[in-house]
Write a structure and sequence with these properties.
Elements: H1 27-49, H2 54-90, H3 92-111
């Protein structure tokens, strides 16, 4: 995540700006999970600051990584069920772009 916003000309092929996305029905659940993840990250920061035992810090990093992966997989599942399915129904270049976009996202998740 770069933290920069893209203008229309710079967007990835197939990017869309529907009023709602697949995850919108679970938005509150995602926000709750992300708030918990923020707390975990602050806790790890505190552990390092307090010079706690490295294995304990690594254990917490592993838990944080798993939590982030859970959010990512949930978002990917929602994306496939909504955005990709809708694009596949439309067919053509839009479908091809959404499928490539999803494949690229999966590849990034597998590498991390």
């Amino acid at each position: 995540m770069t933290g920069t916003l893209k203008s229309g000309a710079d967007e990835a092929p197939g990017a869309d700006h529907h009023a709602t996305h697949g995850y919108i029905s679970d938005k509150d659940r995602y926000l709750t999970r992300l708030k918990r993840i923020e707390g975990q990250a602050r806790g790890i920061h505190r552990m390092v600051d307090e010079e706690q035992y490295c294995i304990d810090i690594l254990t917490q990093i592993s838990a944080l990584t798993s939590a982030l992966q859970g959010v990512a997989l949930g978002l990917l599942d929602d994306h496939l069920k909504h955005c990709v399915v809708d694009a596949a129904k439309a067919g053509g270049d839009t479908a091809d772009a959404k499928i490539k976009e999803a494949s690229d996202a999966i590849a990034r998740l597998v590498r991390s």
